[in-house]
Design a protein that fits this description.
Number of domains: 2
InterPro entries: RNaseH-like_sf (IPR012337)
Shape: elongated
Radius of gyration: 22 Å
Mean pLDDT: 85
Order of helices and strands: HEHEHHHH
Structural class: mainly alpha
Strand order of the largest sheet: 1-2
Distance between the termini: 52 Å
Number of helices: 6
Helix content: 40-55%
Length: 139
């Protein structure tokens, strides 16, 4: 099995290997829990099992929709975090007794957005350090 491949065929081979290991057949599957990626849809069609949407994926989509009206502010915080994540700027924070490092947003998970906004709140008292830094927009 090619561990680098992410095709439906490779996923089905892996699934067959696991089912064999447990003495099961693909007809024993009730459903497959997955997001709506094309690979997962193809797997579901080939083994004739329905897909159940992943609750974590649906929750992530719901959070994205909920915060969409704040996307300008979120994008601004994300840009700030990227700019603060340099060696010199982190050193300046550390030299001023800040125990936090900037965290950038992970686009695939709602928790990445939460982590970034929480860190922004923790870093906020230290943003005055960058008022004269032209590359950092702290407003």
């Amino acid at each position: 099995m090619n561990e680098q491949s992410m095709t439906a065929d490779q996923h089905i081979c892996f699934l067959d290997m696991i089912l064999t290991q447990y003495g099961l057949l693909d007809t024993d599957l009730v459903a497959i829990v997955c997001d709506n990626m094309e690979t997962n849809k193809a797997i579901s069609r080939r083994i004739i099992a329905p897909t159940i949407g992943c609750a974590a994926h649906r929750f992530n989509l719901a959070v994205r929709e909920y915060v969409a009206e704040h996307s300008d502010v979120i994008d601004k915080v994300a840009r700030l975090m990227r700019k603060l994540k340099t060696v010199k700027r982190i050193a300046l924070l550390k030299a001023n007794k800040c125990k936090y490092k900037p965290v950038h947003m992970h686009d695939l998970r709602w928790s990445g957005l939460h982590r970034m906004l929480k860190r922004y709140k923790q870093l906020h008292p230290f943003l005055y350090l960058f008022e004269r830094d032209r590359d950092v927009d702290c407003e």
